[in-house]
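Quick note —
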Amino acid sequence: MAQHSASTAGGGAAQIRGWCDRARMPGKHPDLSDPAAILIASGFLSDQARAVLVRRATAGLAVPAIGGFGELRRLQREIAQLEDQLRNPRLPRVAAIVVKSRVVALGRRRDSARNLVTASKPVFAGSVRGIRRERREGLHLDISERERLFNGLLFTPAPNSLDNNYLRRAGAMAASTAAGVLGQLSDGRSRAGQWVADKAAIIDGSDDESGSTAKFVDGYETMLYIAGNAYDRIVRSAAWRSDHFAVQRSQINVHAELAEIAADVINLRTVRIELDRVRIVAESDARLAEQLRSREAELRPVWSQLIERVGALWDVADAVAAAAHELQVLDQVNYAGTIDLRIDQLIARSGEREMSAENTRRLGEQLGAGRSQLRDYRNILQGNVTGILGEPVDHPPAPAPARGTPQLRKEVEG
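Predicted structure written out below.
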């Protein structure tokens, strides 16, 4: 898990508001888990489809997973960057071929991830009977909704999704390939060679701040990531799943909480984008401009309410983490108590061990005495047997026959 040094410093709505205003969080933070990304992407779906995903998550059923939707977000970002380069009229023809091949390769990876989400048979039923059963239980998601879900997953909140370090690695692959091709077709003074040199200069740049700060596109994405991060910290905690928090688990459904927060944040961002578009048209209309300012003023409390809601979820995650630490300390104390009990038991059995050692020693002495008596009995018995049978006579061995002379066998008639 990431280092949540900032969260231990205080947390709360005020801190989250500052993070959202700056669109960044201090420290290193991991990508969201697949369940958290799915619930956040459900904010792009209808209420009925979102309820299906919440019920599946609450029941502990499988959800579409690819091993990290944060990488899918960066993959989509790289495709968008390369497509922007293709729209550049100054892009050399040979370089365009290289960039197009890269876009095609990345598109295949994206299509593979799309199939895992939209046509995942281990997750959603594929037979007619299974589909009917899931629909009766309210657990089935139609293909069209799965497509919308995947489109939402392409915008999964991910720290440093715009980081130059990731794009630098991707651009290095395209630029190195282009350099290999262009090196055979043109020299460094050509237009294509100049393009490679420019890209190499961009790739060689560095961003030292990205290692210690998680940056996001805007405050809305920052809020979505904070909510998803708090969700992961809660559901992954063994303390939260223990019997100590059985009552608290019945009081809040963290799956539904994250899905509802995501839906409100996504809708609010959509409305703000539409208002910005209308404001450009309303510059010449004073009445319309005044109406827009009034509506924007009505939206400000919504943003504050969302910050308070995400802050409350973040505080729950901090409380669960603190409780997990206390439970760990308590387990260590209990374990130390069991050590004392086992020591007392070992000391109490000291007398038994002494008696057992004494009995074993006596048994060994008895066995030693019996062994000497048996040796005497064996000697006496051997003497009696010798007296009955007489001394054994040792016959000299027969001489060996001479070499080359056959030995005749004498037959004794009797």
